[in-house]
Amino acid sequence: MKLQVLTVLIPLSTLAVADAQPLSLLLSDSKSAITAPTGMVYEKILAAVSPNSRQNNSTYWLSVTQHTDTNHAVAQITDTQLLASVADTPIVEMVSDSPPVKTHEADNFEVLPQSGSPEIALLLNDNINPLLWQGINNRLRNFEAVRHLYAQMNYRPLWTDNGHVTRLAAQVIEASKNAWQHALPPQVYHSDATSALYAGQAVSEPAKFDIILTDAFITLKQHLANGIVDPKKQFNTWNTHPEALDFLALYRQAFRSGHIDNILSVNDPDYQQLQHAYVAALQQAQNAQQHAVTVPASSMKPGSRGAAVIALRERLGLPTDSDHYDNSVRDAVKAYQRANGLGADGIAGANTIAHLNGQSSDNRIHQLAVNMERLRWSRKPASGSYIWVNIPAYRMAIRDGNQFIFESDVIVGRPKRPTPVF
Fold first, then answer.
1. Which CATH superfamily hosts domain 270-362?
2. Quick check: 176 and 196 in contact, CB under 8 A?
3. For each successive 10 residues of the chain (422 residues), what is the average pLDDT?
4. What is the largest CA-CA distance in the chain?
5. Prior bond of 130 cis (ω within 30°)
6. Where are the domains of the chain?
7. pTM, two decimal places
């Protein structure tokens, strides 16, 4: 017969019974909550029960043993047929002496098929960091947040199902691998250890994998929401505060929807525009390195002739049967300049040729990466009306979420640094 496992933590400060004194508990099948006849309320209790053995109003006996090295009691729950011992690690907190109250829907998380993992609890409560897994010492960058999330979820595995990678876990792994698209280093999110894994794959030491991926999930979300660098350490005048993130709510949202991409992303059109430009700039730099054609000139303009014009034509994908800088070359140069944020005058000046030869792509890539990070610091509201001032552009906009309601030039200068004439 499959054992019924009930994981319960009782803080000693609220314990109302003497050591080893039995306390009758009732298991409610409808809400999977455990209450005592005295009216004490236990919340967030994970009951992994075989459907055939679960019955309403089954009576269990709780014997409590105090451990001198902890602030909690370890409980042993028994009935006439079933026996389950709670792990030494605290799992669930007794929160109130009052009757149950109606909670927000987000607090009524579905009882999941897996019970709490003693291995996960042991690793976290023994403060093991880094975790050696897959031959790599994986340093958990948000250890306390990871431990807190598992405590809230009764230490059940979040990303594995009976030791196999879940589809949701595979999405986190993919997001970690693609962190470079945000100018963020994938290795920070343990991609070097997890990138080869796929949904349904069995993993060795699944408890370690689960913890490592939770750290990846939390860390990547933090960096996408608030930036990887603390702006207050860079600028003493920075007066915004990082967004407070509820990782339990975020995990619940992902679990219920089956998707993580709307969580591990930035919902800001301005940011997304920079991100697309960043990816395009990286691709362009890679293509330039692979391209054999170098334009051997410092500058050219319409009417120029020679071997450098032929190289320019080839670089722009034009026919090379002429060495004339004609209108077709001018138009192609203009198109290239517009695509790369250059002054579109159709003249292949020094800056344009440097871009064509890949000499200034690194500056462009760095510029885009820095500005993505600045937008992650900005904490623009996702909804509601607000005023957004673009100081370098001397522009102001009234926005409702991501929609522009009104735009105008704006004076942002000071007496010692006046705004240029519009």
1. PGBD-like superfamily/PGBD (1.10.101.10)
2. no
3. 37 36 33 33 30 35 37 37 30 30 38 70 90 93 96 94 95 97 96 95 96 98 94 79 90 94 90 93 77 80 93 92 94 91 89 80 85 87 78 83 82 75 52
4. 99
5. yes
6. 5-101, 118-257, 270-362, 381-422
7. 0.62
